[in-house]
Amino acid sequence: MRRWFAAFATLAVGACTIIPDSKPPSPLEPVPEAAVPSASYLEISKGQRVGALDIGREDADQALAAFVASCDWLTRKEDRSGLTVPTDWEPACTAARTWPYNGGRAFFEGYFEAARISDGKAFATGYFEPEIDGSRTRRPGYDVPVYRVPDDLVRGWPDEIPESERTGRAPLGRIDGNGRHVPYYTRAEIEDGALAGRGIEIAWAKDPIEMFFLQIQGSGLLRLPGGEIMRIGYAGQNGRGYTGIGGVMRERGLIGDGPGQYPGSMQGIVRYLRENPEEGRALMRSNESWIFFRELTTDGPLGSLGIPVRRGNSVAVDPNFVPYGAPVWLDLDRDVADGLWIAQDTGGAIKGANRFDTFWGNGGDAAEIAGAMSARGEALVLLPVGVVDRLNARQPPR
To answer: What is the pTM of this model?
Structure first.
C-alpha cells in the first residue's frame, strides 16, 4: 500500500480537479455550478499592508517565480471574479519579468495591497500528485484502463429540456442510436466495458483502488515496469456528478469507533475497500464521475492556467471570488501552510470566497502533509495597488 493513501481530507471533501483552462476553448471543459458573482456583491476591504505580513525571503522569491509564470493569463484573460481587469496586472507583470529573483519581498510590497474578501475566514485542504504502478501496454497484472477523452463525449441539450431552459453551456453526454443526446456512461458502465475495444487506452494501471484515488486527485505518476515514470493529467470528465465515498461510508455507519466500524481516515477507507471487495467495488461505483487523462511531458501536473503547479507555491481557489494568478496570503492553524501562495488551480470542492486547496507535490512527505491538511485561519488576497479603492468606490476600471 502506497503512502499517498494517507490523503483522507481531500477524499472526504472532494479533491482538486485539474482543469487546463488556458488551452484553446474546448467543448469538454467543466462549467462551474455556482453562478459567477459580481464584484459589487462581495465585501472587499483592505487588510494589513503587505510589508506588515510575515513573508519569508525564500517564500517571497518562490512566489515571485510562480507569479511570473501566471502573468500571461493575468494580462490576457477575463477575471471571472470581476475584481480586476487585465490592465490592472500589467504594471506588476511588466516589473516581475525583469525583477531580481532574490527581491521577491520588495516586489510584492511595492506593487500590491492586501485585501480581505468577505470576512477573510479561510478553510484550506491539501492535494498532491500520487504515484502508482502502471504500464503503457496491457500485460498480466495491469488490467485497469487509463482512457483518453473518447470521441463521442460531446455537449448537447437533451430533447426533454425546453428551449427556454437552455441557459449556459450544454451538458456533457453522447448521441445514442436514435440521435438523442443522453448522459454519458457512468463509472459502472465504463468499468463494465462501455469503452473497451476502441483503442483509447493511453496506459494500464495495476490496482483499481489506487487508480480510483488517482482520479480523485486529477493527475498522477505511473511507475512503469522498467522504472520509468509516465505523468498523466486531467483531460476531461464524463459529465456525471462527483460523490465522496468517505461521506457515503459515514452516512451508512461504516465509519466510527464502534464494533465493526472503520477509522475515519484514508487508511480506514482503503482497509474497508480491500477487506470487502464486492461492497467496496459498489461503493466506488456510487461515485459516477470518471476522469479521462492525457500524457504530460511537463515537469509537474498542470493547473487551471495551463502551467505546472508547484509544491508550496500553488493553491487552488474558487475563481468566482479570487482571480486566477493572484497572490494569496494564508495564516492558518497548520503552520506548514502559512505564507504566500499563487492562485493557479481550482477544483470541484473548492467553492466560496475563502476556500483553498494547497498543493504539496509528489513523493516524500507530500501525501502526509496533504492528507492531514484541514486548516482554518485568515486569508488575504493581494491585489494591484488601487484596485480595492476603485472597487469600494464602485468606479469602473480605467
So the answer is: 0.79
